[in-house]
Structures are given as structure tokens and as C-alpha cells.
Amino acid sequence: MLQYIARRLLLMIPTIIAISIVTFIIIQLPPGDYLTSLVASMAETGEEVDQSALETLKARYGLGQPIYVQYFKWAWGIISRGDFGQSFEWNKPVTDLIWERLALTFVLSLSTLLFTWIVAFPIGIYSAVKQYSLGDYVFTFLGFIGLATPNFLLALVLMYISFKYFNQSVGGLFSPQFVEAPWSWAKVADLMKHLWIPMVILGTSGTAGLIRIMRANLLDELHKPYVVTARAKGLPERRLLLKYPVRVALNPFVSTVGWTLPGLVSGSAIVSVVLSLPTTGPLLLRALMSQDMYLAGSFILMLSVLTVIGTLISDILLAWLDPRIRYQ
Amino acid sequence: MTEARPLTPGIAVEEPAQETEINLYIASQWQLMWWRFRRHKLALIGGTVTLIIYLIALFVEFLAPTDPNAYSVRYTYAPPQRLHFIDRTDKGIRIHPYVYGYKVKVDKVALRRTFVIDKTKKYPVRFFVKGTPYKLWGLIEMKTHLIGPVDPEAPMYLLGADRMGRDMLSRMIYGTRVSMSIGLVGVALSLILGILLGGISGYYGGSIDTLIQRIIEFLRSIPTIPLWLGLGAALPPNWPPLRVYFGITVILSLIGWTGLARVVRGRFLSLREEDFVLAARLDGSSELRIILRHMVPSFLSHIIASITLSIPSMILSETALSFLGLGLRPPVVSWGVLLQEAQNVRSVATAPWLLIPGIAVVVAVLALNFLGDGLRDAADPYA
Amino acid sequence: MANQDQDILLEVKGLKTYFFLDEGTVKAVDGVDFEIRRQQTLCIVGESGCGKSVTARSILQIVDPPGRIVEGEILYHRRNGNTTEVLNLAAMDPRGQEIRAVRGKEISMIFQEPMTSLSPVHTIGNQIMEAILLHMPVSKNEARDTAIDMLRRVGIPKPESRINDYPFQLSGGMRQRAMIAMALVCRPSLLIADEPTTALDVTTQAQILDLMLELQEEMGMAIMLITHDLGVVAEMADDVVVMYLGHAVERGDVDSIFHDPKHPYTRALLRSIPKVGLKARERLDSIRGMVPDPYHRPAGCPFHTRCDEAIPGVCDRIVPPRIPLGDGREVRCLLYTEEYAGER
Amino acid sequence: MADDLITRDEEVLLEVRDLKMHFPIRRGLLRRVIGYVKAVDGVNLFIRKGETLGLVGESGCGKTTTGRCILRAYDPTGGQILYRQKDGQIVDLSQLDGKALKPYRREIRMIFQDPYSSLNPRMTLLDIVGEPLRVNKIASGKELEDRVAALLRRVGLRPEYMRRYPHAFSGGERQRIGIARALALDPRLVVADEAVSALDVSVRAQILNLLQDLQQEFDLTYLFIAHDLSVVEYISDRVAVMYVGKLVELADTEELYINPKHPYTEALLSAVPKPDPRLRTRKHRIVLQGEVADPAHPPSGCYFHPRCPYARERCAKEEPQLRDIGGGHYVACHYAEELSLRGVIGEGIVAQ
Questions:
Q1: In a designed cystine with A264, which of A109, B265, B334, D185 is the match (CB 3.0 to 4.6 A)?
Q2: Which of C48, C198, C289 sits opposite B10 (nearest CB)?
Q3: Three-state DSSP class for C87?
């Protein structure tokens, strides 16, 4: 088992390197760079360009040098100093900007994941066991709608409803008085109060997807011979259900977790824009639009690493759950 | 012991088998699939709706009452009108379609313009009316619209108007073409990549397979939306709309092909082990013939089902990207571009009809999902 | 005769188990009668689709829906000291406490595929101990010791460590041994074995069959063995039931079934199998035609379409009744009724 | 086996010499080869024209792999497959590939075990049975239909059924379709791999009889691979027994069944349940201990020695070669002459 984890960890390294290269290529793709557009806009407004500052920046990031040099400078900064570079637009180190937002993104995604599981798991089991019952049909239909509705549309509709009928604006993760406030218990409590709306919005399609996966997995298992064996032993139905088919159906379920978490993280990007949440999404979007390349690149890199870690966690979980993998 | 089969004619049974059975025996896989698909009510409905949506996409110019980009400052955020049929006038009751006009009322307190229906003004509406001239499919010059006001200048906003007084109904119909086709084109692109690489991977196996599998795994480990956002932002803003359109489809299919490649590879791998493929080889069939004649028919149906199921995710992705302003941009009209109008809660509050394109997205995606589910269940009629 | 009643462990009377499918009703078991005597082996033999497995599952009421018992009685003679209590298993609620107390404790079952019949994600120890803990008032440690003892008893080497193995870590033969250990750990009075050796090789089959006979001698349980292999029947059975398309067409003791078969199907079946040691290259008698599919059961006697002795206009109309032949033998064939005996 | 039996004996149609088929076991990310499954590990056998050679063994012993090597569905790792052409020329099939194999694909044909997966459910009988005729450009159009009709008739199916799909047929009928396909090219050698083991008892006899009739009629040679000893005895002239990739014994059927010379053959024969309750063999049945060896890690010396009741010291050290102990009875056992083993004769009576 330990060996398995070690091997998986080693495998992560080339993946992350490849991801960083791809990320770097993406942020280099737009024509021009931030400095040129900065100079252009400054020239437009007639401001004076501080040539020496410009040169320092250029030298630091190797702008104007071949792209691989720029990449190595960037990558080396991250490895050696944890320096993700400078956000040109905010004129701050990227590290100052991303951590809190990443943390909030993570809190949001994790709570959404929990919500998704708590809702999807029992419904999935119910739907499979009572296949073709009225409840199954209702859940299946709702599930389909949940899958078909883009998250941001749901967010818009909810916002519209609360604005129109409750005359309050939904959005943000904090009440106005806490936005700038330092962290305190009160702020955490306030966060909890606000968290549930984006959680529900983000969780809908995930829940719908997981219900369908759970239902399908369980339906595959329900009529397997080992279930008959357990029944022939005299096991009561409910215990039998939970101990055997549900347990086995859990394996493919778990293997989806790796995709769920990063999926949520990236899905939250759009919803966060709509709901103006202080997570990574809106900042990433803005950075992309204004070609604030180090900021955008750092976000993409961090999110990708998160995905890789998520996959790793689900693989380990799966190995832990499934002896057939563990003992291979 | 696999003797028990639901279908058994047989040399021993001398009485002629019944008519329906004979049909079953000589039914090709497509007939069997159709019979199986037919039992799936939701899939049938989904299929019909999909068909209708694609028909709409095909005849956009004819179906839309006006030019989607025709604007009118007078009717900014005009609410949807009802289409009336029964006209009670002094002269009696006449049955013909018409809409009422708008009256502007200024709310003195909120300092806002609001529209109210003006019952004094009736604008007759006709089917197959002559209106703005257009070129159907860019080829045939026509003037006839399915529906429209008799007087081309008369206001008709059955689904309301947007910020610039453009007709939402026409825009939504035009959006259908772009949004639905982007799914098709994207899937077609992914399909070519997927079948090619998945086929190579599955057929040759070995180190090529390993390499392709690693690439797929890698592509899947990159979170899609940030990747799309990054690539979407990379599209130069000065590109002409058509090029942006293809740029977006390429971006979407960059991820999409991995899913299809997996399906194709999996099918290839399992089929390669089938006895009937070995039998074909021992018959002396060439490799090409084995693939085309013996293997492809066995997974074509599965591929079709997977395609149907991957169109909706393309549509959703396009909508999301365009919604954020990183995908298609005006003047191109797609559902995502239309929803961009509804991005802030204030405009939604004043003009909730801006959300209607969202309904179109949900309906299209639902229909395609139902259809795909039905196809998938019917894909293997011998199981 | 009282003595013989004492002997009876299980009586199946007029059992009918049907499957209600969209395509129609499949009469998988359509009137089956037999008895199982204590400490004896009853073999149910028949080709695939004849309903032998469904019969076995009906006894424990573990037929998967849409199948269910529509008629008949399954009388289990439970012995409590000197008194015998008769329970009708067919009348019990399939999910109820009553039948669950019988399952695994008094009647247990093993299946054809030991790989798929054991949970892939639980150790065999876990699965065996579960059976013990369900039916016996013992602690976990005692259950573990019992399980290890039982594994040793069925010939699994190093049971102390094997108990922590998962099914996929064992070979086919070992898995079936573990299955048997699980089934016998509560010392049932009846073991139902549904094609227990079909998936195994001949030499492993010999090991498993021997093991079953040994354990039967030692524990004194009755065995109901379901098989399609007449060789296995001849090796194992005391009594035999021959099934064809849901009917028990003939039953009797093993010797008379093999040496004095009555039903045309039994006779044809015995003639159509090649026997080891019989001179090679002798032409086999085959039964013509195919087993009819369950949706198109022939009217009258289900075998008449393939029967060389069928009487036209009679066998295709009249469902043959059960005809007792004495000595516990019974046949369902019109040729043994007084009316049509002349046709034989 | 004597050198080049096939050149000396005109009657020999096929001789397999030291045939090896090793499948690599790959592990890890780079799919490095960490070992080999020696599915077939030095098999020698020969088949005479017009005879049926039965090949028996338990699952995983390599009998199917042997058959597929002879059909050249696999590329053997080593050894020779010498085949006598119609004109008397001898070719080594193991050395041929691609186009050069094509003429032999017509002469050596296969019948599959699984009547379901071996017929493409998406093709009609006409296409399935006609495929070999079509790809070898032997017939097309009306002529193809006529030939398929004749083939179907010959295997006992109605020619009118040729437009039907396999799902319309039961297992036994499907097996007939498979036989018709094998016959389509007028083969000389037919490899029947467990051709009847998926069938029900009552249908099995029909197919066995059909195979015998066809052999007479078309002068076919069969390699009949099966695990069922009674079926093999019934259909074979000679029988070869395999254990973990090797041939342990090869002899005329009667000789092998009555007078087995290899302890494994003896155990195999004694394990078969005899369909006669009066002959219950339990008391004198030889029950082998332990399990079949793993072909990836076979034991030293004689592969059978860990389970052999007669094993001696030498057996663990030295690998016995297949040798003729007289009368065309080949055994791979050091002590074949010394052991007195039990066979079966008559209605399964155990001989001493």
C-alpha cells in the first residue's frame, strides 16, 4: 500500500511539470504581453513611463528573451522561493493575492462535495433499490434537469428570485461589514451563513450526476451472485444491502471523487463570477482578460495541481477500499 | 451451458414460425435497435425535440420574424407581448392574429421608463408574411417569414426586447443555429481525433497505446474550465466572428476527444478479443476488411450514442464561455452570447425575459441527453 | 411408513415458480414434487433452462423478482429433540424473520461460480464469520476460531492466515472449499449445492465431490445437488429427480434411474452421453431437435416435440399426470397410464 | 519423437516439433516484461491424414494455445509446425506470415467453443458462412448463395434461413453454422476447440455425430481439443494429454484409456465421474493433491512431480522427455515402464 502511494506520488512529478509547461504556453498565447499593453495604455493617457522600472521587470521575467528562458525563470522562482511572480495589474506579488482566495475556493468546493454526497448517496441507493418506482422516476427526472441546467443559469435564476420576491441581493460570501474585516469567529459564522447558497447552486449538477452514477453502479451489483449468497445466509435485507452491494458499488463511486473536486473548483469559477464570490474564479477571469499573465498562470497551475492531488486522493481511497487494487 | 435462448426456431419445430418471429430473425441490428429504442418513451420525446431544434436551426432566417441585429431605441427592454387571435371590434368578432402596441409610462418616483400594453393600438400579424429580405442559407433570396407584423415597422416582441430593443425571439432562433452547430462541429472534430487516436491505440496496442493513454490521462488531469478560460482569452479579440467560432470549437474538442477516444479504444480492445474477429482473420480477411466489415458495425451504434451524449456538454461549455465573454462575441448570436446580457442582477430584474435563452439551453441539453440515453440502451440489441 | 415419515427432511409439493416478464410469463418451475430424506443425497438433473436452479432457489425463497412462487408447498420438517415441527417455507414472507432463521442455519446453499458468489471486497473470514454470528450466540473471537476450524476441515492449508484472504487470492477449487465452509459452518440439516463443480476442472471436481461426501458422513446433513452431469449424479445421488422444461418428469432411486429408466427423456438422455471406457467410435443416439424456448412451451407433455414414443393427438394435448410406480418411483408420462399403456 | 517423422511417414499430415508459445507478463508504468507465461512449452505431436487426434487437459494447460498456434492465430515463440501440402511438399507454417499463410488458412480451419461469440451478431448466415468464399474470391453473387445453401443443408440447417441473423438460432444450431463456415473452403485439417463443451447434453450428441459424418464424407482430419475425457474418447483415434504447457502422454485411444502410462493420465481418468451408480469409484479414486502448477513459475524437473503420488527424487531434478515406449505410445515420465497404473475399460470398470 505504501509502495503504491509512493509510486503514485512519483508519477505526479512529470504530470505537474507537464502541466506547468502547458500553463505557461497558455499564458503566453495571447499576442503581446502585459508590459506592452501597459505602455500602450499609459502612452494613451499621456502618463510618463518609468523606463528603468520597466527594464527591471523585463529583466526579472526575461521578457523579450526566448520563451523557454522565461519558462525556466518562472518555474525556478516557484520552486526556489515560492515566488509565483508579480501581478502587473494589482502591482502585488501573486502569492499575496491567491492564497486567501484559494482557501475560500477550497472551503466552498469541499462543503459542496459534502453536500453532494449527503444528498446523492441515499437518493442513489433509494433509486436503485426501488427501480421504476414513482420516487425513482421523480429523482431521475430531477437529476436530468439538474444535469442540463448550467450552474450559472441556476445562480442567475436564484438571484432573480431573491431580488424580485425577497428584495435582497444574493452574492458574496460575507455580509458587507465582514468583507474587509480580519478573520474572527464572527466572520467564520458569517461565512457559514452565506456559504449554503453557492453550495446548493454548485452542488446541483454534481448531485444529479452522482445520483445517476450511484444508481447505475448499484443496479449492476444488486443481482450479482454474491448478493444471493448473502441472502441465502439469512442476512436481513437492509444490512445485506449496506454491507454488500452498496459497499461494492462504492468503489466506482469513489473513483469519481478525484474528478468531482477539481470539477467543482473549476465549475465554481463561473458561478463565482455571477455571485461575485471572493474565490479564484472572478480574479482568474479578470487576470485573463487583462493579460495579467503571472496571476492567471498561477491560478491555472494551482487548480491543475489541485486536480492532480484530487485524483491521487481518490486513487488512494479506491486502493484502500478495493483489495483487488491494493494487492496487485 | 448456454442452450436456453428466447428465440428458437429449429429443425425440429416443423410448424412455420409466426410472422412476427420471422421479422425478428431477419431484422438487422438497426431494426432491432429501433425496436428497442421505441420502447423508451423519454428517448422518443428527446429525439423528436432534438429533431425540431435542428430543424429550427436549419430554417432560422425563415422562422425569425426579423433581423436579429435590427435595433430600435424606442423599444429598449420592451416586455413580451401576447399574440391575440380573437379580435372583438365594434363590427363583431374577427379571428386573426394581432398584437397590441406599447405605451411608455414614466415612473416619476423611480425615474424609470416602463412599458404598458396599449390596447388602442392593434398591429395585425400574419403567417407567411413578407418582411425583411434575407438569403436562406446565404443562397436563396427570400422575403417570406413564418410570422410577422403586416406592417414591417410595427413593433412585435413576442419574447420581449433587449437593451438595444432587438427582438429576443429572432435572436433566440438565430442563436439556435450557432449553439446547436457548435456542438455538432465540436463533436465532429473530437470524433475525428478520438476515432483516429483511440483506434490506433486500441488496434495496435503496445507502446503506442501506452503513449496515447498517457496523453489522454494528462489532458484529463487539467481542469477544464480554467483551461478553456485560458485558451478562450488567448483568442485575439480582432479575429473575425467565423474564426472565433472555429477557435472555440477547437478548444472544446481538445478536451472532448479524450472521452470518445476512450470509448473507441475500449470497444476496439474488447472486440479484438472476440472469437468472431479471430474467425474473420482465419477466413483470410484482410486487416482493413476485418476492421470495416466485422468490427466497425459492432461499435458504430455505441459511438453514435456517445456522440449524442457529448453534444450537450459542448453546448453547455460554449454557453458558459460566451456567457463570460471569452467565447463567441457579438455580433455573433448564440445562446451564451444572449445570456451575457443577463449577467447582472439589475438587468435580469428589469427584464427577466433575458433569461429565456437559458430555457432553450436546458431544453436542448435535456432532449439530447434523453436521446443519447435511449440510444445507449438500444446500442447493443444483442445483450 | 411412520418410520419413513421420520426420515423425511423436506417435501416439495406441486411447486410452481413463474417469472413475469414483459415478453410473457416464463413457467420456470411448473409442478415439481419430491422429497429429501435426512442424511441422503438428492440429485436434480436436467439441461439448462429446465428449472432446476429455480427449484433450488424457491426452497430458500431467494428467487429474484420478477420470479415468484405461485403455487405449491415446501414443507420443512424441523426436528426439535424428539418432536418434529413442519414448516411451510413457501408460505413465509421472503424477507421475513421466519425464513431468515432457516436460511444459512438449517438450510444453506452453495453456488456454481465461487468467484462471483463471494463478495470481492470482503475477506473470506469476514463472510464465514458473518454466517456464524448471525445464527449462533457466540463472540467474535469464538466465531473466528470456528471459522478457522471449518476452513481447516474443508482442506484449506494454513487456515489461520488464509482466513484474511480475499476471494480473488484463492484458486477456483479453494474458493469453492471456502464456500462450502461458509455453508456448513452452522451445521445445517440440508445443503443445497447448485452446480458446485461445473466451473471446475475434473481433478478439482473430484476433490470437491469427495469433500462433500466426507462432510456428509461426518455432519450428517442431507444434500440436494443440482447438476447437468449424469456422471456426477451416478457418483453422488441416493435419489434422483429428472427435470425437463419445468416438469419433474421422473424420480426414483439412483440405481433404477440409471438401470431402469422409465421416461422417454431419461432414456434418451442416458443413451446420448458418451461413457469413458466404452468402445470408442460407436455412434451415439441423439435426441432430435432442440430444447424449446421457455416462451414457446409446447402444449401437453413438454417433451412430446422431441419424443420418439409420443402418441400423436394425445401427448401434444394432455399434460401427463404424476404416475406412481411404487418404491417411491414416479414418472410423468402418459405411456404409463392404464389408458395408453398399450402404445408403449 | 524421431526426427522428421513427417518426411518418413507419408501418412502424417502435420507434425508439431518443440512448439513454444510464451506470453510476456508486463507490469508497471513502462510495461516492462517481468516474466513469461509458458502457455505452450515444447510440445511435440503429429496427426495422420484422416484421423482424429484428441488433445485433453485441464484449463490453462495450453491445449487451446497449441491449437491456435497450429492455426497460426498466434505467432509461436519457437518450434516447427510441419505441414504436408496436397502435392506432398512439406512446409513449416511457423515460419510463414501474412500473404504466404493465405493458402493454408483455407486448408486448416477452426471450429470455436462458444457458439455465441464466434458468430458476428450483425451478419446474416449468408455473410458469415460466405465470408471465407468471398474473401478468397472463390464465389460471389448467386453462386455464393448456392454454395452457402449447400453448406447449410449439409450441416442440417434449412437453406432458407441464410438471410437470418445468428440471434434467431439456439446454441446447437449456431454450432452447426460455425461448422458450415469451417467447411466452406474444403479444408484438410479442422481444429475443433472445445466444439461441444458449451452445448447441452441432448444437443451434444447431435453435433458429435455430425462431426463424424462430415469426417467420413470429406475425408477430414481433426485436432479435437476438449477437457471432457468421455467426449474425447468417443471421437478420437489417438489422444494426447497435456499438463502445464507440455505433452505428457500420447497414444491410441484404447491404449491410453486402458493402459495409461503417465500418472497424470491415470489421475485424470480416475477423476471422471462414471455415469453408472454401480461403479462408484470413490473408494478407489485417485484424488490429486494440490493444484495445477502456475505456467509462469513451473516447478523444477517434471512439472507434475509435486502432485504425483509416485514421484521420486529424480523427478524433481530432471525433466522427462516425451519418448516412444513402443507401439506408438509416447510418455514423458522417467518411470513409465516401471509403474503399473490403472485405466478404464468396458463400462468404466477399473482395471488393475
A1: A109
A2: C289
A3: strand
Q: How many CB pairs under 8 A join A and C?
A: 80
Longest dimension (CA), chain B: 93
Instruction: With cut-offs at 50, 70 and 90, classify the pLDDT of residue D343.
Output: confident
User: Does residue D20 surpass a pLDDT of 90?
Assistant: yes
Q: Do residues A158 and A233 both lie within one domain?
A: yes
CA distances from D266 to B124, D229, D272, D301, D352 (A): 100, 12, 10, 20, 12
Name the grid cell of B188. 465532429
Query: Distance between CA atoms of C209 and B288, rounded to whole angstroms?
Result: 50
CA distance A236 to chain B (A): 32
How close A254 comes to chain C (CA, Å)?
A: 14
A53 in reach of chain C (CB within 8 A): no
Q: How many Å apart are CA A245 and CA A125, to the nearest integer?
A: 10
Which partners does chain C have (≥3 C-beta pairs < 8 Å)?
A, B, D
Q: A320 in a domain, yes or no?
A: no
Paired with D45 in beta bridges are D16
* End residue of a domain, out of B164, B199, B215: B164
Query: Which residues of chain B neighbour D164 with C-beta distances below 8 Å?
Result: 25-26
Rounded CA separation C54/C59 (Å): 9
Domain that holds residue A79: 18-83
> Which tens digit of pLDDT belongs to each residue from B292-322?
888 888 887 778 878 888 888 888 888 888 8
Q: Is B52 part of a structural domain of the chain?
A: no
Note whether B18 and B8 are within 8 A (CB): no
Assess whether B275 and B323 both reside in one domain.
Answer: yes
CA-closest candidate to residue D308, choices D326, D331, D290:
D290
Ranges of residues in chain A whose predicted pLDDT is under 70: 1, 30-50, 53, 57-64, 167-172, 258-259, 262, 327-328
Query: What is the homologous superfamily of the domain D117-189+198-220 according to CATH?
Result: P-loop containing nucleotide triphosphate hydrolases (3.40.50.300)
Task: Using an 8 Å CB-CB cutoff, list chain D residues near B11.
Answer: 156-158, 173
pLDDT-derived band of residue C204, with 50, 70 and 90 as boundaries? confident
pLDDT tens-digit profile of C53-76? 999 999 999 998 888 899 999 999
Does domain D5-96+228-351 fall under CATH 3.40.50.1820? My reply is no
Query: Closest approach of chain C CAs to the CA of A306, in angstroms?
Result: 29
Compute CA distances C18 → A164, A231, B190, C54, C62, whole Å: 59, 20, 49, 9, 13
> Beta C190-194 vs C107-110: how paired, if at all?
parallel
Domain pair D5-96+228-351 / D117-189+198-220, same fold: yes
Check whether residue B230 and residue B307 sit in a common domain: yes
Distance CA B168, CA B72 (A): 12
Give the DSSP H or E segment for C10.
Answer: strand C8-21
Measuring CA to CA, which residue among B340, B206, B323, B211 is closest to residue B269? B206
- For B211, name the nearest residue in chain D, comparing CA atoms only: D30
* Angstrom distance (rounded) from CA B148 to CA B63: 10
DSSP letter for C333, please.
Answer: -
Give the residue, B203 or C207, on which the prediction is more confident. C207
Domain CATH number, residue B253? 1.10.3720.10
Question: C290, B6: Cβ pair inside 8 Å?
Answer: no
- Per-residue model confidence (pLDDT) at position D64: 92
Tell me whether residues B3 and C295 touch, CB distance under 8 A. Answer: no
Contact C131 A322 (CB under 8 A): no
pLDDT at D29 over 60: no
Q: Which residue has the cell 515444447?
A: D42
Specify whether B190 is located in the same domain as B138.
no
Cis before residue C66, ω within 30 degrees of 0?
A: yes
Residue D109: alpha-carbon gap to chain centroid? 12
